[in-house]
Design a protein that fits this description.
The protein has 1 helix and 11 strands; from the N terminus they run E-E-E-E-E-E-E-E-E-E-E-H. By secondary structure, the chain is mainly beta. It has a single domain, classed as 3-layer Sandwich (Rieske Iron-sulfur Protein), CATH 2.102.10.10. The chain has a 4-stranded antiparallel beta sheet, with no helix packed on it. A 4-stranded antiparallel beta sheet has the order 5-6-7-8, with no helix packed on it. A 3-stranded antiparallel beta sheet has the order 1-11-10. Strand 5 and strand 6 form a beta hairpin. The longest helix has 5 residues. Bound molecules: FE2/S2 (inorganic) cluster. The site of FE2/S2 (inorganic) cluster has 10 residues, from loops.
């Protein structure tokens, strides 16, 4: 796993997703009660952008068909999504947000 700089951590607001492209990956960042989380941006159902989804509590609702994911775990919590979305560890170093990506992520770049 390798960590990549994303942006100043203050750029990730509460209540809505933030899309960032990191090492060729489209990632969705969320802040829930001050804590930061990262999941793949692409819905596992039909490729919609989850950063554009509505955030409620710790879930995000896909804007295309209304499926829901639990953001901290990536688990599907409402149909039609049935497959989990990948989650990625985040760290804050000196006010900068970093995300940890597996090696395969670089191969797509
Ligand atoms: S594309 Fe996300 S629920 Fe269909």
């Amino acid at each position: 796993m390798e960590y990549f700089a994303v942006c100043p951590e203050q750029e990730i607001p509460e209540g809505q997703g933030t899309l960032r492209q990191v090492a060729g990956e489209r990632l969705a960042f969320f802040r829930i009660n001050g804590e930061l989380f990262c999941i793949d941006d692409t819905c596992t159902h039909a490729l919609a952008s989850l950063s554009a989804g509505q955030v409620g509590g710790r879930t995000v609702t896909c804007p295309l068909h209304g499926g829901q994911f639990d953001i901290p775990t990536g688990k599907p919590v409402r149909l039609p999504v049935t497959a989990p979305v990948a989650t990625h560890p985040v760290e804050i170093r000196g006010g900068q947000l970093f995300v940890g990506l597996e090696e395969e992520a670089e191969d797509d770049y």
